[in-house]
Amino acid sequence: MQELEQSLRAAPDSALLADILRETILHPLCVKYPPSAKYRRCFLTELIKKLESTAAEPLDELYQALADVLKEEEESTHCYKNYLLVLLLIVNSKSMACADASLPSRVLQPSGDCVSLCESTALISGGTTGLLTWEAALHLAQWALQNPGLFRDRTILELGSGIGFTGIAICKTCQPRTFIFSDCHPRVLRQLGENIQLNGFTPEPDVTWSIQTESQGQEVEGQNCQNPKVVVAELDWGSATEKQLLGLRADVVIAADVVYDPEIILALIGMLQKLSTSRADRKAPEVFIASTIRNPDTHQLFQAELDKAGIRWQVIPTHSSCNFLYDVQPDVTILQLFI
Asked: Interior CA angle at 226 toward 223 and 227, to 5°?
């Protein structure tokens, strides 16, 4: 906003604000899946303040957009959020200004796709925190988009999927063969299923995740990974059996923001131990857990319990900033576990 104000002061022109308005509040994606009325109201109010602080001509579109938001009904308990996906491209440095032209350059480029989600406007809703997207899910998705080869043509199991951001982003960009979303809260599972369909995927009809057979797994080997098989599983870490998990045939297991309460750490580790023998070939899946370090003691307890259970771990180097976050950059760590 500060840069915008400086631009307007240097060259007062309401056309710049008109362009911003069309690319944000009036963008077709935003019109179809609108953010919360409170957010749109604050955003438009700030734009108007910037406009009125300069000598630029008044912009009727801007005032009309704010009037339309103010006329909306009372604030809903849910809103939409749209996340633009950014891919990491490796390009030849010879075509760029680079100190060493022999080295490839890593370039971030919009994929042209996005993830649209219906989320709760409250941190806790219906007795769960799983109805909105948390920071570690954003960081894990960015890391996945920068490492698509880890997921391509493989079966991915996500623990504690919440409303689905990380998994949907991976399905749209990393070409997995099968992606299994899982959670245990009924309201979360319902919203998760709706968000998956909102983004153009259809969960497998009439397929019970816990009784998938090896032959079913083989049927999708040649499946077009541009359109992965998607499954939504009700998965309780405490009650899931090794026999049930065997049907999942997971090559990679991921989770984000599941290490936030000391009381669930042992259940999570127990689940990981079951997963270590859940493949018919007895090859343990690769595991990656992303955590926002809100309480260092809780994260240290998780690491200590992993050590007790004989599960080796290492920190995965990642970028300190996340493209999906523009305000505060939280402390997020991704651990690779060797189960």
From this structure: 65
pLDDT digits (tens, 9 = 90+) for 151-179: 999 999 999 999 999 999 999 999 999 99
Residue 95 within any structural domain of the chain? no
Point out the domain boundary residue: 18, 42, 76.
76
Q: 105 to each of 66, 89, 97, 298, 319, how far by Cα in Å?
A: 43, 8, 10, 38, 15
Write the DSSP assignment of 172-221 as a string of letters: HHS--SEEEEEE--HHHHHHHHHHHHHTT--PPTT--GGG--HHHHHHTT
Whether the Cβ atoms of residue 163 and residue 130 lie closer than 8 Å to each other: yes
* Secondary structure class of 65 (helix, strand, coil): helix
Q: Report the domain count for the chain.
A: 2
Please list, in sequence order, all residues whose beta carbon lies within 8 angstroms of the beta carbon of residue 128, skipping any fewer than 6 positions away. 185, 187, 188
pLDDT at res. 177 = 96
Question: What was the pLDDT predicted at 128?
Answer: 76
Alpha-carbon gap, residue 239 to 327, rounded angstroms = 39
Rounded to an integer, what is the distance from CA 314 to the centroid of its chain? 22
Q: Determine the 3-state secondary structure of 150 from DSSP.
A: helix
Around 166, how many Cα atoms within 13 Å sit in the side-chain half-sphere?
31
pTM for the structure as a whole: 0.84
Q: How confident is the model at residue 88 (pLDDT cuts 50, 70, 90)?
A: low
Q: Are residues 265 and 325 in the same domain?
A: yes
* N residues, the chain: 339
CB of 157 within 8 A of CB of 248?
A: yes
